[in-house]
Amino acid sequence: MNLLLDTHALLWCLSSPDRLHRDTRKKVEAPAQIVFVSAVSAWEIEVKRALGKLKAPADLQDQLDANRFTELPLHWRHVGALRSLPDHHRDPFDRMLIAQALADGLVIVTSDDRIRTYPVRTLPA
């Protein structure tokens, strides 16, 4: 199973890995595990940083590389998957992460209960 970190799970992995659920942390840290980080999360971090709502590492790309995380670009198939999503959640960043996970068969690492209302596989962050 390939994982997709939602934005807060990504920030926890980088700054406070002990906050992650123990079993999930083991999976994220497993050498053979593929862990994706979406360009959508980078976008969300920069938007919230610019608004003064978030402090995040300035060297985000370096930290992603150091943690062996795989960049997940935004593709047309991901945008197309938005059409089939019910309107359970208004956050456009989370909706796009859900669409990416559905389109690519990924499991989202999250603590957001609203994400679990969608037909997407999740692991607790």
Describe the structure in your own words.
The chain is α/β, with parallel strands linked by helices and 125 residues long. It contains six helices and five strands, in the order βααβααβααββ. It has one domain (3-124): Rossmann fold. It has helices spanning 7-15, 22-29, 39-50, 60-66, 76-81, 92-104; strands spanning 3-5, 35-38, 70-72, 107-110, 122-124. It has a five-stranded parallel beta sheet with strand order 3-2-1-4-5. The protein is globular and about 35 Å long. It starts with a strand and ends with a strand.
Summarize the biggest pleated sheet: 5 strands, parallel
The parts where pLDDT drops under 50 for at least 5 residues are none
CATH class: Alpha Beta
N→C terminal distance? 16 Å
H/E topology pattern: EHHEHHEHHEE
Count of spatially separate domains: 1
Radius of gyration equals 14 Å
What share of the residues lie within helices? 40-55%
Shape: globular
User: In terms of structural class, how would the helical and strand content be classed?
Assistant: alpha/beta
Mean pLDDT: 94
Tell how many strands the DSSP assignment holds: 5
What would CATH call the homologous superfamily? 5'-nuclease
Q: Please state the second-level CATH architecture.
A: 3-Layer(aba) Sandwich
* Strand order across the largest sheet: 3-2-1-4-5
Number of DSSP helical runs: 6
Strand content: 5-15%
